[in-house]
Amino acid sequence: MSNKKCISIITVVFNGVENIEDTIVSVINQTYDNIEYIIIDGGSTDGTQDIIKKYGENLYYWVSEPDKGIYDAMNKGIKASTAVWVLFLNAGDVFFNQDLLSSLQSYLHNCDVLYGKTAIKKKNGDTSIRDYYPLSVDWKVIPYCHQSVLIKRKLLKQALFDTNYKIAADYNQYFTLKTKDVKFKSINKTFSIYDNDGFSSLNQKALLSEYKKISLLNHFGVLEKIKIRLYFWSKNIFNKS
Questions:
Q1: Which of 6, 21, 25, 116 is the most buried (most CB within 10 A)?
Q2: Rounded to whole angstroms, how far apart are CA atoms 26 and 235?
Q3: CA angle 31-115-140, nearest 5°?
Q4: Which residues contact 122 (CB under 8 A, 6 or more apart)?
């Protein structure tokens, strides 16, 4: 593979002093070392930068400057990356185990997007495994969590996150990738532990609104659109109860 790194790990953070070190340590402790690690900090003022500097020698690139939100920061990470594959592991998220990236190498053939399961960290500290979803239900949910998917960088460069979406730009990006006729591959492995106190999980109403908009834009036919509207209407009713 010449001198090019195989995987770019990108972490975006803003005022994450309480959990950024856990994420950094999770990355640098991976047994697989053919990676470049990138951190995009939104100009933190709480000590986050001090922790990043502590691990500076382990980083390929890092920057601390104001941004226009999480997806703008993630786009900065994509543009800074040079590896073949990209995975986002944001502040508070960690890999499921130290051998995760090593264990994925045999699967990185004949696909453009590789994804698996995610362990969801609950408020009480427990975790539960969330399976990936089949592509057939992409009208209501993204098949994977962005913490548990590897996507080829050359495709991400053509499908940057649309910052008009504040919460569900990853869902929109999925459909952009789908139109490029990429090959998706799912595997029975848990990639990461996702901190469920993240931004989207705390903004369910806005998330459902963006999901419905994106789904309607990418699915066609009267009956299909009625199904989508009824589904998201029912989800909103359930969340209110």
A1: 116
A2: 35
A3: 150
A4: 128, 196
Give the chain's length: 241
CA pair distance 145, 131, nearest whole angstrom: 10
Q: Where are the alpha helices (DSSP H) in the chain?
A: 20-28, 48-54, 70-80, 100-104, 153-156, 169-179, 204-218, 222-240
pLDDT at 2 (0 to 100): 47
Instruction: Report the pLDDT value the prediction gives residue 197, as an integer from 0 to 100.
Output: 62
**At the top level of CATH, which class does the domain 7-198 belong to?**
alpha beta
Query: pTM here?
Result: 0.93
The answer to whether the beta carbons of residues 7 and 79 sit under 8 Å apart is: no
Which residue is listed with tokens 């500076």?
A: 56
pLDDT in tens, 165-194: 999 999 999 999 999 989 999 999 999 999
Indicate whether 83 pLDDT > 70. Answer: yes
Instruction: Answer left, alpha or beta for residue 233, where phi above 0 means left and psi between -120 and 50 means alpha.
Output: alpha
Rounded Cα gap, residues 5 and 26, in angstroms: 18
Question: Is the separation of the CB atoms in 5 and 82 below 8 Å?
Answer: yes
